[in-house]
Amino acid sequence: MADPKGFLNHGREVAKTRPVGERVRDWNEVYVPGSLLPIISQQASRCMDCGIPFCHNGCPLGNLIPEWNDYAYREDWQAAQERLHATNNFPEFTGRLCPAPCESACVLGINQPAVTIKNVEVSIIDKAWETGDVAPQAPERLSGKTVAVIGSGPAGLAAAQQLTRAGHTVAVYERADRIGGLLRYGIPEFKMEKRHINRRIEQMRAEGTKFRTGVEIGRDIDAMKLRKRYDAVVIAAGATISRDLPVPGRDLNGIHFAMEYLPLANKVQEGDFVAPPITAEGKHVVVIGGGDTGADCVGTAHRQGAASVTQLEIMPKPGEDRAPHQPWPTFPMLYKVTSAHEEGGERVYSVSTTHFEGDEDGNVQFLHLVEVEFIDGKLTQKPGTERKIPAQLVTLAMGFTGTDRENGLVDQFALELDERGNIARDADFQTNVPGVFVAGDAGRGQSLIVWAIAEGRSAARGVDRFLTGASDLPAPIRPTDRALTV
């Protein structure tokens, strides 16, 4: 373990962010480069000898958190990255993007600020890349079996890397022009610079994984023809259908899904555009949806020079401390101030959009809303609270409802769906079609990046066993496992 008295001697310190006035003028990550390393060994020392490390259960990957905390405390970075990689293919992704359910389950967090697990994680992997400790792990021999992975988000990439290292020949098909899925085009550059994806892709290429971009299975290639070409197929296409807002005025110009708006901003950073086709510059921006995707829209609008930014949430404002009905070690709903919220804008809770109002040219100009409350478990409007706010750009960030059905993938495979519209699978992550497996949001529904990687790793075991009759690959979760919540 780390320092037995570390949690008594040191308080919680997190990564420092750059001044708001500086960071909103660029698209670099918001944190001060190198600010973590001087404090991270001390922060790792706060990890207790707690007997039963509930952080293992809070993390679906089963990350060996006390072990790599101990190595980080001792500054044995080589051993730390080995233990980190033992359960997580892409800790530089989760260390930047995961909301850290492991910290909610930290035993120290019962009555003190939890260990900064996420900061320790990202420090270890960044140090490993810096020292050259992250190397390709090509298989010693090939199995002669072939696997197609549909989708290159975290679930697809995790499955592909595991199966490649097991000796199978793997090709990843991505319908976008670059690899990464929502990591590439859904996550803004200021949250994770895309160089982190690029170097992982190069590692995977060196290991033997093949990548095919600009190919949509179902449209460009018939799904069953793909199945005949490969010994197994993994569907990791995500839950990409955005939840809509069917209210009057929805068809006005200037109202877009978040996943129409955010990718264009990322494409500017990739050099595809000088300026994005959809921009917040000089506009009053309204973001509907209070989650992480909504916060990404807020931060993007700030950097594009919005005149104002307002974020709407239909639910009440969460508390800053755990509610009694959300006890440790569950993942609580807390009021969270992201880096994007630090940069400005207004957050409005307990409101619902009634309709949009446009000008004579069909462009949205105002959003009409009303305050709401829950009465006997039913969402009810408060009479007399109607008002309108200026809105020249509206982004809908209300989550996702399921995997794409329009491209033909589901129907061509004749896949069965569960009661929530996700692709059904058995205990080995196999669908009703023999040799076709599903991992990530396509089978689980909208979830976190850490669950996607866990799904990819677990599905890879199912594929490996299907191809060879047995498997030594780890399977951290079952398809039916869910986050520890109330």
From TrEMBL:
Matches recorded under InterPro entries: 4Fe4S_Fe-S-bd, DPD_II, FAD/NAD-bd_sf, FAD/NAD-binding_dom, Glut_synth_ssu1, Glutamate_Synthase, Helical_ferredxn
Classification via SUPFAM superfamilies: alpha-helical ferredoxin, Nucleotide-binding domain
Domain 4Fe-4S ferredoxin-type: 38-69
Annotated source species: Streptomyces huasconensis
UniProt-listed Gene3D superfamilies: Alpha-helical ferredoxin, FAD/NAD(P)-binding domain, NAD(P)-binding Rossmann-like Domain
Name used for this protein in its record: Glutamate synthase subunit beta
This protein's UniProt keywords: Amino-acid biosynthesis, Glutamate biosynthesis, Oxidoreductase
Pfam families: Fer4_20 (PF14691), Pyr_redox_2 (PF07992)
Pathway: Amino-acid biosynthesis
Amino-acid biosynthesis listed as a keyword: yes
Taxonomic lineage of the native organism: Bacteria, Bacillati, Actinomycetota, Actinomycetes, Kitasatosporales
Coiled-coil annotated spans: none
